């Protein structure tokens, strides 16, 4: 005696008839449980950070300001260095080392780099901010 025909559902992918509760669609092989179990990630806004230069009279440094839900805040800063001339040259070792330290601190804190800013040192980063309360 054949098993009684169970309730039939429709495949999300191919619209074929699938026995209720089946893990796979017999027509296209789509994994059905997976489709239903996908959980929406908690909503969040991206925090963004951009490296900028603080130019002092004698000493300067790089810093990164993060902007997200709250007030902008400095999330990384380099040691001081002397800028010779108006230009910020990446071929000056002290400048390069200070800049690399800020990039490293950001990456270590979970920031990922996105498109660069208008100057070579104005690199931009982002990371998921705090989940937005529902
Ligand atoms: Zn299917």
Textual characterization of the structure:
It is built from two helices and seven strands. It has a five-stranded antiparallel β-sheet with strand order 5-4-3-7-6, with helices on one face. Strands 1-2 form a two-stranded antiparallel ribbon. The longest helix has 16 residues, at 93-108. β3 and β4 form a beta hairpin. It folds into two domains: 8-37; 44-131. It is of the alpha+beta class and 134 residues long. The chain has helices at residues 32-37, 93-108, and strands at residues 8-10, 17-19, 44-55, 60-67, 73-77, 112-113, 124-131. The two termini are 52 Å apart. Zinc ion is lined by residues 11, 13-14, 16, 25, 27-28, 30.
Brief overview, please?
With 134 residues, the protein is an alpha+beta fold.
Low-confidence stretches: none
Please give the largest β-sheet.
5 strands, antiparallel
Which strand order spans the largest sheet, edge to edge or round the barrel? Answer: 5-4-3-7-6
Series of H and E elements = EEHEEEHEE
Overall structural domain count: 2
Give the number of helices: 2
The N- and C-terminal alpha carbons lie at a distance of 52 Å
- Classify the helix fraction into a percent range: 10-25%
Seen as an oligomer or otherwise, the chain set is single chain
Assign the structural class, choosing from mainly alpha, mainly beta, alpha/beta, alpha+beta, or little secondary structure. alpha+beta
Mean pLDDT value: 85
Bulk shape: elongated
Number of DSSP E strands: 7
> What small molecules are bound in this structure?
zinc ion
Q: Please indicate the percent range of residues in DSSP E strands (runs of 2 or more).
A: 25-35%
